[in-house]
């Protein structure tokens, strides 16, 4: 992922620096006890001694806000139940990159800076109390928002110490809590948000209602780079409740960037959501569909396959491995295909914006509120300081809420009508006029020595480079050839989609390794373990958000555990198993799928997964994330796909983009590796291994290698 | 117009064909009921109409006027709904939570009509409710836990 604010993060990440007490603050004035105080950007103390964790990360259902609150409660030494959580407005000046929610990085990236910041806040109150009592700070301790003296009854609330604490320099040499003192980290805690959700009261942005607010829906050009020619809004305007109909001028779409860009469209403004959505259907619009109206997904496939035939090129630093690969004879090759997909968060994309001329206020569920603020500033010409983004919990994100288009639209419409506008995308909009997980074609090839041993593998396809999200952990030298891509305008603009390119990458690599194991007449798990045993640690600390190197031994361990937990090779008759093992950033996940195939009907019975994500903060949430990731992966591997004809997505709603449902969900068993390593992510690592484990199991059952997903795309198979 | 929701009377002005969903959400500010597909395919908007599960996105409000509507906000004596909410919490079931109002209301209708469904009946009874986060295993477990507790009463 391209992140542009790293230089800011690197200064923020050094704990003590976060203390806003260093900002000039008048020492002479009497500070009123009625004021709240933020010792740093992550915590606020109110005059009634309420302590609030200010969560910089977005809550999309991945549970980050709960896991982080557990860390805060432990480091601060307070009862989890008494700690409030609220979400930070978008603010690069406060959080830098640490506010972007993506790459399953929330806990990992905040683990160190958050504990340092909280420990520093804790110490500053201890020092303040010690000064007040004229004692040595080492004779005092803090618990539950109070500072106590070790050997007397003296006790002071944080709130009562604010005036004193504010003027103190931030203490250095902060001692972080010893893990043996953790009360919450590692426990199955249920956050307050779970209760709020069960009562139907989670404050999603789609629930926002402001005085004088208009409800908007937009009809967008069916091809992403087409344009409006003309429209007739007479029928739409006569729909009860409709207030106005306006044109939405296109903003250049960057088909492969996190920035938004807005499709050419027509907006209906009404007194309620339904009127806006219904009247939109009554618009009569003439579009200039542009060059993409002559391009379909079959053309993309042909174009990419033709490029695979072209001579391979490598960058100079890869020439050695290219030469090594060419020294041996080619013996086996395979091309894998994965379909276009869309995220379809259950809460359709929506945003409420109020452009007041000199300032803008926005309510939205966003994975990158700081970046969105920067983007809206760029779009409107207003300084970032004039733009407030209230970041609310999202009804799913999965990468899609990293892209700003839906907020840009709301701002542009509000700019024209100068009223608060809530823009709601219909479900059809989120499927037909969105941004998408790309269609991928990936070619893998192995070179053998005369005795039939694999000496090197080669990859050429739609995935740009090998990195921490798509690594090669095996002791097999690999050459990554320059990638293939559509020439000219992409058929569809791209968005992140849970696990992004790790999904097609694992499909290719983990199926291909399975094929090599079969050629070598070896058990697929034993073969992988053999290759991991011989493998060196892979350097992957090339970007700050990656975190750590790749340790093949850790992946090997998850494979050994999954072999045992899945009763590998000892299942009942008619059941067949397939395996995969992936690493994603610094998490490792191995899976075994049990399935049966009868008359071409595939039935998945069970998925057994083993995850190593370092120290587990909350096992309940981690298990839930992995199970959810597996179900996500099964939808894409078994049945969902977008097809594109003449530049237009053919699926429209959940009837044609039919996600996995409860009756199709197999038994899922998740095991977590006990580890004291730094915590890593769980939101995405469940996804990439599903498709290869499924296809490998189908091979075990039928002897046939399917190399495309979803499997319903091949005419031979359907779902039982 | 007048609507009886959770044993409370609400008065409002609306078009007769406005779906119940949007009356609840935009006019009555009962936002626990969710919009997600608008065509009765995902179940996020499920409410009870006279005790039966109904997709509120696909029912005109005029068809609901003389009926008893129950939504996720119902906090009255309905002990089965409360038991389901409690079970959802105990099992840490929601992830993003957006579909869960509909899941809970659908489970309420399922168990109201069949207090002791089989494994297959639960799966088939809940298949109309999509969860994109993939919380199905915990939804199922939450329902099973309520069945088990009730069978001991």
Tell me the greatest interface: A-B, 63 and 59 residues
Strand order of the largest sheet of chain B: 2-1-5-3-4
* Unreliable sequence segments of chain A: 1-32
- What is the architecture of the largest domain in chain A at the second tier of CATH? 2-Layer Sandwich
Write up this protein.
The complex is a heterodimer of chains A (720) and B (153). Chain A is globular. Mean pLDDT of chain A is 93; it is low at 1-32. Chain A starts with 5 loop residues before the first helix and ends with a strand. In chain A, a hairpin with a 2-residue loop joins strand 24 (644-645) and strand 25. The longest helix of chain A is centred in the first third of the chain and has 28 residues, at 106-133. With 720 residues, chain A is an alpha/beta fold. Chain A is 29% helix and 22% strand. Chain A folds into 3 domains: 6-196, Aldehyde Oxidoreductase, domain 4, CATH 3.30.365; 205-291 and 342-432, Aldehyde Oxidoreductase, domain 4 (2-Layer Sandwich); 311-340 and 440-490 and 498-719, Aldehyde oxidase/xanthine dehydrogenase, molybdopterin binding domain (Aldehyde Oxidoreductase, domain 4, 2-Layer Sandwich). Chain A contains 18 helices and 28 strands. In chain A, helix 2 runs parallel beside helix 4. Chain A has a 7-stranded mixed sheet with strand order 10-11-8-17-14-15-16, sandwiched between helices. With 153 residues, chain B is of the alpha+beta class. Helix content of chain B is 39%, strand content 12%. Chain B folds into 2 domains: 2-70, Ubiquitin-like (UB roll) (Roll); 79-152, [2Fe-2S]-binding domain (DNA polymerase, domain 1, Orthogonal Bundle), CATH 1.10.150.120. Chain B has a 5-stranded mixed sheet, with helices on one face. The longest helix of chain B has 17 residues, at 136-152. Chain B has helices at 20-27, 79-90, 100-113, 119-126, 136-152; strands spanning 2-5, 8-11, 46-49, 52-55, 68-70. Chain B has 5 helices and 5 strands; from the N terminus they run ββαβββαααα. In chain B, strand 3 (46-49) and strand 4 (52-55) form a beta hairpin. Chains A and B meet through helix 6, helix 8 and helix 17 of A and helix 1, helix 2, helix 3, helix 4 and helix 5 of B.
């Amino acid at each position: 992922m391209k992140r542009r604010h790293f230089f800011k993060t690197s200064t923020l990440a050094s704990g003590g620096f976060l203390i806003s007490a260093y900002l000039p603050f008048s020492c002479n004035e009497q500070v009123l006890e009625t004021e709240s105080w933020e010792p740093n950007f992550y915590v606020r103390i109110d005059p009634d001694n309420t302590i609030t964790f200010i969560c910089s990360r977005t809550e999309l259902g991945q549970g980050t806000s709960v896991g982080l609150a557990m860390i805060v409660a432990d480091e601060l030494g307070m009862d989890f139940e008494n700690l409030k959580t609220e979400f930070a407005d978008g603010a690069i000046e406060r959080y830098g990159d640490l506010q972007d929610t993506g790459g399953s990085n929330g806990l990992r990236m905040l683990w160190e800076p958050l504990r340092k910041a909280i420990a520093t806040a804790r110490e500053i109150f201890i020092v303040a109390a010690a000064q007040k009592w004229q004692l040595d700070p080492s004779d005092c301790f803090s618990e539950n928002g109070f500072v106590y003296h070790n050997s007397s009854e003296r006790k002071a609330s944080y709130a009562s110490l604010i005036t004193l604490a504010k003027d103190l320099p931030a203490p250095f040499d902060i001692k972080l809590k010893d893990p043996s003192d953790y009360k919450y980290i590692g426990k199955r805690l249920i956050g307050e948000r779970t209760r709020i959700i069960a009562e139907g009261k989670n404050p999603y942005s789609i629930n926002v209602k402001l005085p004088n607010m208009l409800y908007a829906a937009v009809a967008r050009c069916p091809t992403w780079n087409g344009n409006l020619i003309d429209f007739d809004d007479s029928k739409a305007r006569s729909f009860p409740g409709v207030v106005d109909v306006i044109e939405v001028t296109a903003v250049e779409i960057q088909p492969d960037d996190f920035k938004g860009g807005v499709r050419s469209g027509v907006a209906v403004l009404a007194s309620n959501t339904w009127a806006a959505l219904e009247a939109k259907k009554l618009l009569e619009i003439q579009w200039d569909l542009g060059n993409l109206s002559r391009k379909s997904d079959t053309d993309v496939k042909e174009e990419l396959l033709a490029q695979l035939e072209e001579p391979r090129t490598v960058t100079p630093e890869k020439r050695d491995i290219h030469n090594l690969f060419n020294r041996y004879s080619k013996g086996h090759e395979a091309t894998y295909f994965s379909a276009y997909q869309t995220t379809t968060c259950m809460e359709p994309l929506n945003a409420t914006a109020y452009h007041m001329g000199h300032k803008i206020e926005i309510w939205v569920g966003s994975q990158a509120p700081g970046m969105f603020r920067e983007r809206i500033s760029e779009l409107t010409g207003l300084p970032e300081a004039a733009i407030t983004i209230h970041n609310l919990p999202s009804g799913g994100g999965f990468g899609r809420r990293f892209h700003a288009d839906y907020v840009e639209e709301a701002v542009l419409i509000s700019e024209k009508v100068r009223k608060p506008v809530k823009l709601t995308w219909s479900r059809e909009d989120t499927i037909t006029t969105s941004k998408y997980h790309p269609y991928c074609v990936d070619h893998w090839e192995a070179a053998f020595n005369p005795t039939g041993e694999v000496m090197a593998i080669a990859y050429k396809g739609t995935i740009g480079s090998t990195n921490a999200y798509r690594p090669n952990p095996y002791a097999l030298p690999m050459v990554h050839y320059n990638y293939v891509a559509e020439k000219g305008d992409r058929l569809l603009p791209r968005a992140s989609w849970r696990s992004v390119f790790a999904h097609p990458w694992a499909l290719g690599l983990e199926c291909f390794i399975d094929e090599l194991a079969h050629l070598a007449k070896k058990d697929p798990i034993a073969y992988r373990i053999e290759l991991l045993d011989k493998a060196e640690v892979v350097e992957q600390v090339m970007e700050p958000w990656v975190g750590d190197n790749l340790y093949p031994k850790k992946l090997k361990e998850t494979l050994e555990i999954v072999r045992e937990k899945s009763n590998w090779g000892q299942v009942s008759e008619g059941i067949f198993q397939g395996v995969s093992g992936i690493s994603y950033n610094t998490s490792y996940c191995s899976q075994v799928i049990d399935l049966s195939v009868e008359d071409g009907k595939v039935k998945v019975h069970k998925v057994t997964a083993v995850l190593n994500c370092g120290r587990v903060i909350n096992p309940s949430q981690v298990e839930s994330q992995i199970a959810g990731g597996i179900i996500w992966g099964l939808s894409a591997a078994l049945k969902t796909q977008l097809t594109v004809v003449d530049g237009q997505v053919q699926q429209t709603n959940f009837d044609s983009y039919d996600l996995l449902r409860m009756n199709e969900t197999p038994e899922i068993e998740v095991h977590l590796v006990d580890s004291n390593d730094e915590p890593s992510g769980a939101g995405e690592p469940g996804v990439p291994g599903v498709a290869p484990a499924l296809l490998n199991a189908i091979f075990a059952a039928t002897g046939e290698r399917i190399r495309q997903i979803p499997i319903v795309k091949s005419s031979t198979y359907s779902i039982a | 117009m007048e609507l009886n929701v959770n044993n409370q009377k609400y008065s409002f002005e609306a078009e007769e064909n406005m779906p119940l969903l949007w009356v609840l959400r935009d006019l009555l500010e009962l936002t626990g009921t969710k919009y997600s597909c608008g065509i009765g395919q995902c179940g996020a908007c499920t409410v009870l109409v006279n005790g039966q599960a109904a997709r509120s996105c696909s029912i005109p409000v005029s068809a609901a006027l003389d009926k008893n509507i129950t939504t996720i906000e119902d906090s009255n004596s309905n002990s089965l709904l409360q038991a389901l909410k409690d079970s959802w919490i105990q099992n840490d079931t929601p992830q993003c939570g957006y579909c869960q109002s509909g899941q809970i209301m659908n489970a309420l209708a399922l168990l109201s009509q069949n207090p002791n469904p089989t494994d297959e009946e639960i799966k088939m009874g809940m298949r109309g409710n999509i969860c994109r986060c993939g919380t199905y295993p915990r939804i199922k477990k939450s329902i099973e836990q309520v069945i088990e507790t009730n069978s001991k009463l």
